[in-house]
Amino acid sequence: MPLSNDIVLRPRFKLEIPRLNEAVLSDFENAKLSQKEFIVTRVDDHVFIKFPKEQQHFWSPQLHLEINKVNDNSCTIHGLFGPNPTVWTLFMFLHFLVAVIFIAFAIWTYTSISLKQSYAVQASITILMILLWVTLYFAGSLGKASSIKDMRLLNAFMNSVLGIENEKAP
User: Fold this and answer.
1) DSSP state of 13
2) Burial level of 145, CB count in 10 A (0-12/13-18/19+)?
3) What is the tens place of the pLDDT at every residue in 72-121?
4) What is the DSSP annotation of 70-137?
C-alpha cells in the first residue's frame, strides 16, 4: 500500500480479505495479547492501532480499521492513518477559525472599498489569514512527512496480523 500521496493529510485505504470479519477481528484481539509494540483497541467492528504513550510524539499516527462483513467468506477493511483525534480536532478547529476570520475580514474589506473608506487594515488581515491557512496546511504536511516511518510500522503490523506480505516501499 503506497503512502506517497502528497495532498491527502490522512491517507486511506481499502482491502478485501477472503476471511470472515469475526475471524479477522479475533486475530487483532489475539495480537493485542501477544505483543507489546503497539496498543490495539477493539470497539465493535473497529480496531485502533497506536504506539504506547512513551513512544508517542505530537504527530504520532494511529491506524483506524473498520472491518465490515461482505459475505460469509470475505470482509472489507477500510483503513485510515491519522494523528491522535485530539490533535486532529485542534488542527481542524484552527482551519475553521482562520476561514471564519478570513470571510469576516473579506466582507469588511469589500464593504470598506464600496463605501470608499480606508481598507488597509482589513485587507492586510484578510491576506494574513490566507498566509496562515497555507502555513497550517504545510505544518500538517510536515507532520505527515515526519510520521511516514511510523505509518509504515503500523501498516507492517497490520499486514503481519492479517498474514499479508508487505509491499516493497518505492
Assistant:
1) E
2) exposed
3) 889 999 999 888 888 889 989 999 999 999 999 999 999 999 999 999 99
4) EETTEEEEEEEEEE-HHHHHHHHHHHHHHHHHHHHHHHHHHHHHHTT---HHHHHHHHHHHHHHHHHH
Give residue for cell 503497539. Answer: 38
d(CA 170, CA 80): 20
**Cβ(85)–Cβ(41) below 8 Å:** no
For residue 63, give the H/E element and its range: strand 61-71
Cα–Cα distance, 41 to 64 (Å, whole number): 10
